[in-house]
Write a structure and sequence with these properties.
5 strands, two-stranded parallel ribbon, three-stranded antiparallel sheet
Length: 227
């Protein structure tokens, strides 16, 4: 779609208008934002459109659309889909060798698990290898409650963070300001970085990693704008 508007404005209800006409989600619901800061950021995405709309350049708009159309109608069901990651959280699956990798995983991942233990009064089964190990039912229940307590816009922000990192615990730590975005990103990419250090970067994997990083940063930015 080519740009067809001249002016972008924010309404008193924190909606976005193009030449006075309200922007709607793909589901035809008015695009209303939960705070003024986020409304400004979304409006800036529309102001920045040059000749044609490129959804990849408008990640906040896309996440807001998802919050309204996909998540808000049944936020608990959506949260349950993210809670599944607690059963196979990246942080609980460790290498048994070589020693430098074992140490690097412990340094990056143990503080996140320790934070979750203290915050939610839970414990984790930490194992080596890739064979699945069940987590305690109480742990799963409490982490599920923690993600279910988030509103649709927070869930929209956390969804790419959880799915890209493979860790519900890391995403909750980021949301709780117990870890910063770069630390969580590096923790999630630790194994890939290790492999690249040992064998070199896979040229075919670089674009996929860059795409993951863009989606991750979009979620992080939305989370920051909601605070």
């Amino acid at each position: 779609m080519k740009r067809f508007w001249t002016s972008v404005e924010i309404t008193d209800a924190r909606g976005i208008t193009l030449d006075g006409k309200p922007v709607r989600t793909p589901g035809r619901t008015p695009l209303l934002l939960p705070n003024a800061v986020l409304a400004d950021a979304v409006a800036d995405e529309w102001r920045s459109v040059a000749a044609e709309i490129d959804p990849r350049a408008m990640p906040l708009t896309g996440l807001a659309n998802a919050a309204i159309d996909r998540i808000a109608p049944d936020s608990r069901a959506f949260a349950a889909g993210l809670a599944v990651f607690a059963e196979s959280d990246l942080l609980c699956y460790r290498a048994d060798s070589p020693a430098p990798l074992v140490a690097r995983q412990a340094a990056a991942w143990d503080p996140l698990l320790d934070w979750a233990r203290a915050t939610y009064r839970v414990d984790f089964v930490v194992t080596t290898g890739i064979m699945h190990r069940h987590q305690p039912l109480e742990t799963l229940a409490r982490l599920s409650e923690a993600i279910a307590a988030r509103d649709p816009f927070e869930l929209a922000a956390l969804a790419p963070i959880v799915t890209i990192s493979g860790s519900l615990v890391a995403a909750l730590a980021l949301a709780g300001r117990a870890a910063d975005a770069e630390a969580v990103w590096l923790a999630s990419e630790l194994d890939a970085d290790w492999q690249a250090e040992q064998w070199g970067e896979d040229d075919l994997a670089i674009p996929a990693r860059q795409a993951r990083r863009r989606d991750y940063e979009a979620g992080v930015r939305l989370l920051d704008l909601l605070r």
